[in-house]
Task: structure prediction
Amino acid sequence: MKITIIGAGAIGGVVGAYLAKAGEDIQFVDINSEHVNTMNEKGLTISVKENTFTVPVKAFTMEELVKSDQELEVVFLCVKALHTKEAVKQFKHLLREDSFVVSFQNGLCEYEIAEEIGADRTVGCFINLFADYQEPGLIEYGGVGSLYIGEVNGPVTSRVEKLISLLAAWGEAKATDNILGYLWSKLSYGAVLTATATTNETIADVLDNPQYHELIVNLTREVISVAERKGIVPKSFDDWEPKVVAHSDYDGVREQLHILTKRLRGYTKTRTGIWRDLAVRKRKTEVPQQLLPVIADGRKLNLELPLTTALVQMILDIELGKRQMQIDNLDELARLSDASSVS
Result:
């Protein structure tokens, strides 16, 4: 199976490097020409706490890939959510009739991919790992999480099973017949992580602070309520228990968040990629592409999501320089959460 990884950043870089290291037929595609050149000349380095390694790889820019006119068998799409449609439009003419694309992304990008190439050529993926692109040719891998592969609507298929076997080179990938349950659970977790990115606090410090537990609960409830109204059963992963956070009493929530915080304090990556986009790279995040569809689905179901809506606007304001990243942002959201609870 020949794999083309489009987006050789945090997720694509880590997964692809482990597959290449295992001898799989992998090629990388990225818009950053310096990153591409460095990978071709020096290999791709994955910086891990106890086992840093460099693997020789083949890499292309998107322009080079398109000009090569090569057929693509399987594509792992690993670009930011906001670049999904643009990326698929650029390479879809290279797909064979039996080719398919796997969405290694945040959000519900599978639907956007399916709009371009068809649902039968789209495979769902849930991935939760902590990694960051550091510089050309170097990815920091700061925490191992879960990876599930599944058809967007349907049982586990032979192509899913083949992918699981292939991904064993990375770690313990699993097949699922409920990929949407994992994706919506990650959206609820993503909403909480996005709130932490409005400050310079670490994820663990925010989640460990009882002052923000009600905010965490209410953000989770907003997203999970939409999923459950749609008939989707949320799934737990990596010590994130969305149904516990959304539906338990506060003693149960505190206990669960303590377990999650203990896991997070063992990671070398302490803040989100969203925080890095805002604080370091000074660029737009993928938050609107992740959370606006949740808000839109909620409205269709007569569910208002005031906290999620306010959080998205807060991120947009930070991107535009209208708001600073500071703890006051979390406090503002916490006050809104209190008001929502009272009303």
Notes: The radius of gyration is 20 Å. The longest strand covers residues 95-103. The CA atoms of residues 147 and 173 lie 5 Å apart.
